[in-house]
Amino acid sequence: MAEDAVFLTARFNARPGKEDELRAKLESLVEPTRAEEGCVFYYLHQVKGQKGRFLFYECFRDQEAFDAHANAPYLKAFFAESDRLASGEPEITFLEKIR
Q: What does the alpha-carbon distance between residue 20 and residue 60 come to, in Å, rounded to a whole number?
């Protein structure tokens, strides 16, 4: 994998009563993201035993590919309505590969 690959996690917490709706919206992001030319992997997880807590584990070929993803119309549309479904801002963590 290229040294300039971008790895990150994105965590979301659902508002009470919005767990299923947030999950469905997050699931709807998976296929279009995986179809992006620069997407290496894009996995959605749910925290065990915590229905409304979700985490994406993502890798993009490089910063340009990540920027294209961040500006994708379907992702912008999701974030335009995410306040209604998610509690607070998503926690985005960029990772530095060690080995």
A: 27
